[in-house]
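Z., the sequence and structure:
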Amino acid sequence: MFASTVMWLPFLVFWAVVQILKPLLHCQNGPVAIRISGLSLHLSTTSLNSLPPFLLRGVPQITRERKGGTVRRLSWIWDAGAVAAVGGMAVAQGVLLWAAVKGGTALWASLATSEATSYAMNLAKRAEIPLDSTSFSTGSAPPSDGLLLRPLLLRLFQYHLVDFMMHIPGITTPLSTLPMLLLALEHIPLLSTGIHLYLFLPTLYVSLPASTPATSQSPFTDLRVASAGVWHNLGMAGAVWMLSDEGGGVSRWMLEKGAMDGVDSGVTVVEVDEHSPLHSHLPPNSLITHLNDLELDSSDSPLALWRSYLSRPSPSTSVEDYTNLGWCLPSSSFSASPDLPNSNCCASTPVNSASHSLCFEAASPSSSEPFFACLDPVPFFPPSETIPRRCLDQSSCLNAGDETVCARPASKEQVLRIGVAADDTDGDGRRTVIWQGDSQDVLRQGQLGSFVLKSNTC
C-alpha cells in the first residue's frame, strides 16, 4: 500500500502544481502553445516545422515519374507500407468477422443446450450446485470453448538479446521522426508538433493541414500518410524479431562472431538505480552467481531463476534448506531469549554503530526453545578465509565438535546474500553483498541481462 502511494505521489503533486498555475500556463506565446483542460495537458510548438526538410537535405534528389508529378525513389518504402496497411486491415476485418461468427454460434449452442438440459441439484453450505458438472455429452467441449482466440505469433516478442524491458521506438515509445520525414517527401507542411498528457499517459502528435495541393491531387498520398505509423511499427517489430533468438537469431550470430560474451554462470548487471543502496556494490558488468546458497547456473536460464527466486514471498532465513545453509558456530555464543520473537537479540548495539551485527538463531539441542546470538556475519561470508563449517541441520555439525550448533540469521533480519564473482583484481573466488529487507525489492533496484559486450583487453 505504501509503495503504491509513493508511486502515485509525483503525479498527484505534478497535477496539483499544474492546476494552481493554470492561469499562467494557459497561453500561446511565440512558437509554443500550452492548453489545459481538466486533467489533459497539451503542449505544442512550431519550432520543429523546418526539421523534416532539413533532415532530407542529404537524401539524393533522384526522382521518378508518377502521375501528378515526380517524387523521390525513397517513396517506394511508404508505397509498400500503404499496401501492407490495406492488406492488414482486410485481415483484421476477417478475424473480427470470424470471431463474431464463432461467438454467435457458441451463444446459440449454449442457449439451445440450456433449454434441453435439466440439472439434479444438491444443497451444500447454502449454495446450489449441479451434481453433474458438465452438461454436455462425453468427449464434447462446451460451446464457450469456441470463444477462445489463440495468439497467432505467441513467441514473436520473447526477447533474449537483453532480458529486460526494452524501450523500442515505435513499439514501447512513440516514433515521430519517420512520419515527419514522409510528410516532407510529399511536400506536406507541418502546422505544429506536440505532446498530449492525459493523467500520466503521454502521446506525441503532429498537426497537419486539412488539405494541401499534394493531397488534393493524389488520394494515394493520404493513404501513405495514414498508414505510415503502422508501417514503421511493423518495421521495428521485424527488426526486433530478427535480433531475437526465436526469430532471425542476429544476436546469436553476434555472439558466435565474438561481438558479445554469453553468460551461463549467472546474471550480469546492466544498470542499478543510482539512488539504490546496491549502486556502489554492483557496478555494470558485475556477474552475480549466487542468491543465498542458490547457484544461478543450476538452471538453463539463470535470469529466469533469479526472477522466480526473488519474486516469491521472502522465505524465512532460518528454514532448513539447501539454498540457505547455516554455519556451525560455538554454542557458548548463544543463549535463550525470553522475549519472542527475539526482539532484544541485538538491542544493545547502538543505531549509529559501525558494527554490522545480525541476530542468529539456532535450535537448542536440549529444549524446544531456539537459541539466539548477536554476531558479526562478515567472517562467515566470502571472501573470508575463515568461513565456519556449513550445515543443513544440527546433525551436520556433529563432526565439527559437541560445542557447536547450526545457526542461521533470524527470520526478522530479512537477509539476502548476493554472491558476486570477483574481478581480476580481487583474484579467484567471489564476494558477498548483504541486502536487508524484502527480497522482492531487489528486482526493482536495476536491470540485469544474460549478455555482456566483449571488452578489448591487451
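The two ends are 52 Å apart (CA to CA). Residues 267-344+355-453 form one domain.

Let me know what you think.
H.
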